[in-house]
């Protein structure tokens, strides 16, 4: 196949890949800009988006001079537009959820970095997929919510879906470029999990954990929501579901092992029991650089592994007693389609409540399990975006009800 002729490996007149970053003010967004800054001749930033950090977005716009910027609300847009005009920038400032979809599908953009946190990222991801973009997916909640519908949009839109989540990038890096060869090669995959900040803590004491303690990840610096997910291992549960869809696997073909050093980012166990692993220092700029440059490789800024200076690489069982959220992934995958959307929605409500001081840490998994068990997913819910978004809302309402019951 002529790579240059495919829509996701475009050759714009400038010769530079035109990149939209959804969620540019976050951890993945800023790491993406860090990688892009190393390659000014290869990439151009067309679009930056933010939700609450408008000052940070303004600074990014001044540095990158994008064609478009998106914020959440009209008054933020008016304010930012005035600031950028005063600085002599022609950037058009848009606002709202529809604007995110618009910029994700913009014909003047070749590649979309999906770095919004949470279910809010699904509609713009779908828009990018339908428009045939190179879609670099960090926003795991979007694929957990979207499931088969998300993958269908990627296929029918002719998009190139590139995993950014470190584990899924690792698996992707271990697999051949020809996707039709994947099924015959893979026996199963092993996602590595750090175990988070409470790997050695007595589970009976987890009720008193504070948000700052939960966000103190041992190996990665990330946004607060994913940091809490890593502590509870809901992050790994979401990643199991994400892997099921990205690599078209059965639930039992996705396994998890604790690897506290986060040096092996995940592994493919092949049919012949050969194991392929991807290793590196824990730095998201590696998967981001690979998403931007695939199938080539570019400098990322990450430190190289020093094998002689490494601590021993160790492995442990991911214990369901310590991490009760983890088994919910397989439970949801085996239940009616749409159940993973329910689990994700419940978790978003639970984590927000925990970060806001309204839910005990050790009740996040309880709330998620309760919502998953109590909500009867309608048969056709997963057949349309509207059905999935309605299900997401229903699960959030039930989660808020469970929250009130747990706090009573
Ligand atoms: N951080 C990491 O290392 C990794 C992250 N991921 C995944 O990548 C995604 C982003 O994570 P991370 O960068 O850590 O998160 P952050 O919280 O650091 O950043 C989130 C970004 O999304 C924006 N945002 C938040 N809510 C909304 C909304 N409702 N609508 C539109 N934009 C919104 C934020 O804007 P603002 O800042 O202006 O409020 C910010 O730009 C998550 O899905 C996470 O699971 C996956 C692997 C690793
Ligand atoms: C960097 C990344 O991809 C995160 O999802 C990371 O995996 C979190 O680490 P654990 O969930 O393994 O603690
Ligand atoms: Mn990950």
From TrEMBL:
Q: Which UniProt keywords apply?
A: Isoprene biosynthesis, Magnesium, Manganese, Metal-binding, NADP, Oxidoreductase
Instruction: Supply the EC number(s).
Output: 1.1.1.267
Give the binding site residues for 1-deoxy-D-xylulose 5-phosphate.
Answer: 140, 166-167, 194, 217, 230, 235-236, 239
- The 1-deoxy-D-xylulose 5-phosphate reductoisomerase C-terminal domain covers which part of the protein? 161-247
UniProt GO MF annotations: 1-deoxy-D-xylulose-5-phosphate reductoisomerase activity
Q: Which reaction does it catalyse?
A: 2-C-methyl-D-erythritol 4-phosphate + NADP(+) = 1-deoxy-D-xylulose 5-phosphate + NADPH + H(+)
Q: Which InterPro entries match?
A: DXP_reductoisomerase, DXP_reductoisomerase_C, DXP_reductoisomerase_N, DXPR_C, DXPR_C_sf, NAD(P)-bd_dom_sf
- Positions binding Mn(2+) in this chain are 165, 167, 239
One Pfam family in the UniProt entry: DXPR_C
Which pathway is this protein engaged in?
Isoprenoid biosynthesis; isopentenyl diphosphate biosynthesis via DXP pathway; isopentenyl diphosphate from 1-deoxy-D-xylulose 5-phosphate: step 1/6
Q: Does the keyword Metal-binding apply?
A: yes
Q: What are its cofactors?
A: Mg(2+); Mn(2+)
Limits of the DXP reductoisomerase C-terminal domain: 279-397
SUPFAM superfamilies, per database record: 1-deoxy-D-xylulose-5-phosphate reductoisomerase, C-terminal domain (SSF69055), Glyceraldehyde-3-phosphate dehydrogenase-like, C-terminal domain (SSF55347), NAD(P)-binding Rossmann-fold domains (SSF51735)
User: Where, by residue number, does NADPH bind?
Assistant: 25-28, 139, 141, 223
- The 1-deoxy-D-xylulose 5-phosphate reductoisomerase N-terminal domain, residue ranges: 19-147
Give a yes or no for keyword Oxidoreductase in this entry. yes
Q: What does this protein do?
A: Catalyzes the NADPH-dependent rearrangement and reduction of 1-deoxy-D-xylulose-5-phosphate (DXP) to 2-C-methyl-D-erythritol 4-phosphate (MEP).
Q: Which family does it belong to?
A: Belongs to the DXR family.
Name this protein carries in UniProt:
1-deoxy-D-xylulose 5-phosphate reductoisomerase
Q: Which organism is it from?
A: Leptothrix discophora
Q: Which gene encodes it?
A: dxr
């Amino acid at each position: 196949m002529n790579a240059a002729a495919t829509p996701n490996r475009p050759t714009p007149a400038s010769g530079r890949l035109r990149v939209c970053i959804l969620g540019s003010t976050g951890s993945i967004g800023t790491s993406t800009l860090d990688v892009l800054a190393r390659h000014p001749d290869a990439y151009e930033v067309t679009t930056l988006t933010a939700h609450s950090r408008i000052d940070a977005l303004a600074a990014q716009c001044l540095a990158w001079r994008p064609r478009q910027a998106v914020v959440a609300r009209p008054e933020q847009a008016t304010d930012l537009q005035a600031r950028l005009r005063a600085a002599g920038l022609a950037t058009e400032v848009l606002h709202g959820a529809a604007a995110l979809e618009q910029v994700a599908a913009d014909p003047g953009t070749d590649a979309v970095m999906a770095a919004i946190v949470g279910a809010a990222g699904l509609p713009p991801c779908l828009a990018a997929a339908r428009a045939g973009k190179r879609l670099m997916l960090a926003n795991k909640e979007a694929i957990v919510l979207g499931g088969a519908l998300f993958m269908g949009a990627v296929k029918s839109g002719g998009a190139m879906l590139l995993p950014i989540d470190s584990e899924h990038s690792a698996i992707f890096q271990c697999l051949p470029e020809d996707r039709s060869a994947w099924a015959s090669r893979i026996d199963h995959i092993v996602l590595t999990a750090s175990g988070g900040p409470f790997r050695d803590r007595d589970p009976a004491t987890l009720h008193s954990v504070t948000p700052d303690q939960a966000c103190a990840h041992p190996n990665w610096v990330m946004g607060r929501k994913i940091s809490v997910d890593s502590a509870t291992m809901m992050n790994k549960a979401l990643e199991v579901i994400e892997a099921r869809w990205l690599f078209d696997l059965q639930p039992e073909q996705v396994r998890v092992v604790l690897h506290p050093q986060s040096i092996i980012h995940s592994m493919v166990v092949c049919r012949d029991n050969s194991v392929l692993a991807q290793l590196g220092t824990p730095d998201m700029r590696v998967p981001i650089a690979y998403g931007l440059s695939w199938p080539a490789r570019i400098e990322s800024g990450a430190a190289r592994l020093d094998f002689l200076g490494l601590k021993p690489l160790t492995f442990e069982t991911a214990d369901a007693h310590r991490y009760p959220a983890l088994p919910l992934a397989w439970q949801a995958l085996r239940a009616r389609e749409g159940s993973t959307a329910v689990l994700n929605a419940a978790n978003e409500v639970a984590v927000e409540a925990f970060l806001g001081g309204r839910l005990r840490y050790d009740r996040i998994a309880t709330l998620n399990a309760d919502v998953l068990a109590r909500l009867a997913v309608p048969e056709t819910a997963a057949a349309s975006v509207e059905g999935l978004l309605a299900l997401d809302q229903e699960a959030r309402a039930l989660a808020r009800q469970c929250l009130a019951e747990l706090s009573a």
